[in-house]
Design goal:
With 843 residues, the chain is α/β, with parallel strands linked by helices. The protein has 31 helices and 26 strands. α3 packs across α4, α16 (454-460) packs across α17 and α29 crosses α30 (775-794).
Amino acid sequence: MSSRVVLRLTNVVKAFPGVVALKGVTFEVVEGEVHALVGENGAGKSTLMAVAAGSILPDEGTIEIGGEVMEQPSPAASQGLGLAVVYQRLSILEDLTVAENMVFAMPPGVRPRMAQAAEWTRAQLAAVGASIDPAARVTELSVADRQLLEIAKALAPKPRVLVLDEPTESLTPAEAERLFERIRAITATGTAVVYISHRLPEVHKIADRITVLRDGQTRGTMPAASASEDEVLRLIIGREVDQAFPDKASAREQQEALLEVRSLSGPRLHDVDVTVRAGEIVGLAGVEGNGQREFLRALAGLLPASGAVSVKGEDVPLGHPARTHDAGITHLPGDRYTEGLFMPLSVRENVSVLALDDVSRGGVLQHRAEAQVVDREIRQLAVKTPSAETPVASLSGGNQQKVLFARSLLADPVVLLADEPTRGIDAGARIEVYEVLRRTAESGKAVVVLSSDAVELQGLCDRVLVFSGGSIVRTLEGDDITEENITGAAITSATHHESLPAAVLRMIRARRFAAGDYLPSLVLVALILGLGIYTTASNSLFWTQFNFTGMLLLASALAFIALGQLVVLMIGGIDLSVGPLSGLCVVVFSFFAAQGQSDGRLVLGILAVIGVAIAVGLANAGLVKVFRLAPVLATLASYIVLQGISLALRPQPKGFIRNDVISTLKTSWGWVPVAFVVVCAVAVIAEALLRFTRGGLMLRAVGSDETTAHRLGARVARTQVAAYVLCSLFTAAGGLMLASQVGVGDPKVGVSYTLTSITAVVLGGASIFGGRGSFIGALLGACLIQEIITSTTFLHIGVAWQSFLPGILILVGAGVYSRARLTRADAVSSEAAGGMTPVATNT
């Protein structure tokens, strides 16, 4: 082994409110080794690696990567020095495709051109044993595929140091073994690997050296070959451990049957029959995707299913989570981030949420009673938190899992469904969880545990049900419950699949398009054509050059402003000031372009409008980034101020704009105004930049997840400032178009454009939460709104319909688009599974 140190952290100190996470830690990794970093949840492992990655700034200490000191720590700086991290909470942007995620995470020297992104991505994924469609969005992927994508992303730049934080938590044994082979291959080339895991057997299998952290301090570094598992475990938890698993139940045949399932069928399920008795822990096993997780979720009411489920002889309604919970079934989700915890809320609020009826009187929460039961659960599960009022998002992953466990137990279930209950929990805490599960069963409850860890199922469960192809293919009891039998039954009974039929592939692509960013544009085109045809049929004057040209001129102004609004919405913000800003641009322009003013003054006026726009964009960005105001509040304040400035400059409409300027701005090529051609060209170019450039990916990445984008090296603050400035510049262009239409410095002319620009963008399919949208869609949304406004006159219907129709379209469109996007993952994965031809291989 080489003695060259490629990662050195020296005397690192990091404190958070109420806790010191790292207390002068020194840690070294040498070239070509696998250095395991182990410890309890909250010991400081992930924090230490986040410091190395530049994601967290240390209070004290130095960071060296490849022999170079990182003077100004940041994710981009650490990546530039050759460090890559696979975080426990994956750094994947859900609004981007698989290929876009891969490309965005790459440093400049490795990053492929977008034209080659798909093939390059396939090659990188194949290197870790994954066959994932590069065009798929991340929301379509399973947890295991997301993990493999994250690993492929980290390996692609061929880093000097690769940090893997719990990389096998979501992988099958076969996938984990492929990962180990890949790790051995890259360490053979000199890359160092920091391997963080709670699974001590795999640590001994893959590591050269082991360093133990406890309470933010280093407790020892030793060769893996000479360190026994008991010795490492003692250093981790600070005491001797007699055994990992509590004694199993006995004589359960005499116990009452609490859960009875008959002919349960649903997604990937076929006529499953199960009985679970009081005092019994039943495990669910099988290769991922063979129905065991769907079975658990169907019992919890989270998936549609048919059949019969009863608790204590009482029927349980299927497909209704709340009613299922009321019947005595409590589900502990496997994904604590998306389904389990309320991240903005405190530990107390997360723990007590399922027991509010027990700590309330007449609908009023009794805080003392709540605090007592929450404190009891925190103590029993040894949750490491400064206080019960600490935001749960600030806890380590393992302690977050304990909070989720505490909540489930506090609900006092008759049947506890535990999906991967020890995921992300350290070795010491696992022992505590096993004891809690056994105590829960012994108290007269029924416990069903789904786990991908065969050793865990062997040591914990009284019975193990092995799933394959949506059915139970083997039941293991007593001495038959062994790791070999569980793994063997799962693998030999696994349902293999032939390639997807062409019709199914077409269906998947169709569903993917339906949930993508361009379906709204097609819908808008159809609505624009349909409304135009209907209005022309009702009133032939609608289809005249004068009306058509005028309508497109008006649409041009709105389109420019909508394009600007979309830029801000893409980063997850909003700009309410665009309406008054467009009016202020008209007012300012009127001082320089009034009748009798020289061409020099005209140019100066254009520059003044641009200057005002830039100043307003910077002011909005400053309010949001520097003063930490919510975008709605910041831009609402700007709205009021800008409108006041406009009225101060022009209390009444005044300053008629030069006729030649108006004529130039209204120039047309036949029926089509030049301004409309320009805004169309701008929208097409902006769309291309959004999809195929680093800047466009950055914009969408920041809007998709600001924290993850920062981890991946995105310049978040710079991107947000640029978005607000671009929005104001687009609005200034719209203001100039308004000036040509009103012909005078009217301070109130742009006020209505705030809401109409938002309407146009939403109709175009943009997400108000950021990360999703289309400039083509925003352009078409603006055209449809202007067409509706114009058509109401020719159709002789009330002016109120100018507001009613866009409002109705927003409700319908947003509902349809959101539904399509929310169900895309289930639809695509169901189609992929259902369309395959199963080939049984029971050997």
